[in-house]
Every structure is written in C-alpha cells, then in structure tokens.
Input
Amino acid sequence: MANVSVFNMEGKEVGKMDLNDAVFGVKVNEHLVHMAVVQQLANNRQGTQKAKTRSEVRGGGRKPWRQKGTGHARQGSIRAPQWKGGGVVFAPVPRDYSFKMNKKEKRAALKSVLTSRVQENKLIVVDELKFDEIKTKNFKAVMDNLKVSKALVVFGEKDDNAVYSARNLPTINTADVSSINVYDILKGDTLVLTKDAVAKIEEVYA
Output
C-alpha cells in the first residue's frame, strides 16, 4: 500500500496517508491509457471538414478541346483534379470520428494513470484547498508553496472560489472527481488531490 505525505496550503507536511492499492497500486496498462487518450481526442473532433470532388465542382461539363490533333494532352473536363479550380481527388467529407471504450477499459485506464502518477512521485495530496475570495494570486501562492508549476488540481466537491481563482493560470487545470479523465491527468505534469478527492476516488473506483 502506497504511503504519501499530506501537505497544507503553506506547503508544509502535516501527516501521512495510505492509498488504496485497488486504485493507486494496479498494474499499469499502457495500451488502455493510449486508447483512452485517443478516444477523448477523437470524440472531441467536430468532423465537419468538406471539400468538393470533381462531380461536385461547378462547371466543367463541356470537353475543353477535341480528343486528337491539337498537340495538347487529352482532357475531358476543366474541373478535373489537375486543373486549377478542379475538384479534389479524395476529398474529405463530414464524418464522425468517435468510438466507444468498454466501461471496464475506461476504469482500468484511469487506475493505470493514477498509479503511474504515484510511481513517478507526481502525486501531491493537500489536506484542503479553501479560499475566502476569488483571487488568482492566492491560488498561485499555494501552487508555489507546493512547488507545482503545471498541474491538474482535483477537488472532492466543486469550490467556486478555488476554481475561479485558478481559471487565469494557463498551466493549471481544475476538476472535480466526477469529471477527471486520463487525458487531463497526463497533460499536467503533477496531479494535486485534496484528501476529500482521494476518498471519493477510492470510493468510486475501488
């Protein structure tokens, strides 16, 4: 069972915490982690790109010159792909890039990435993150105290003051337990969890 330090908002260690091996100590499955990232990026694609093929481009119905005897190469239409203003050979069309992953695969991928953060010493547990007002400077001060520059900060419950205070920090993202995903965890160099968030993650995924 992994044992991690718990810090306060001043960056001082205030205790230790055991992490559940069923969530933070599983065998890392890199294939499922990769699939989860690809799925999220694919599902975010709009898929609205479109270009016209030679059958869709306006004009070009008449043969530009006779087949033989001109000295030119034979041509059937001025909208053929080799012509300026012609159609695209294999033109992209609107499509849906999304695909599904099984529920068990998604859970295994999330557990794998949480375990990897523990193994790489990139997981920080904070006893609480409470702010009296919305102030970016206050949130940045806490991150500086924890020696964190790029991170995903996860709360047990959404705290508007904390979320809005972090919103102007370009390298800090926030989430609550219900919305964490593999891609966001990997995108931040460090994963910062409150004690409440750890308890909820273990309750949901153990």
User: Anything to note?
Assistant: The chain has two domains: 3-45+99-205, 47-96.
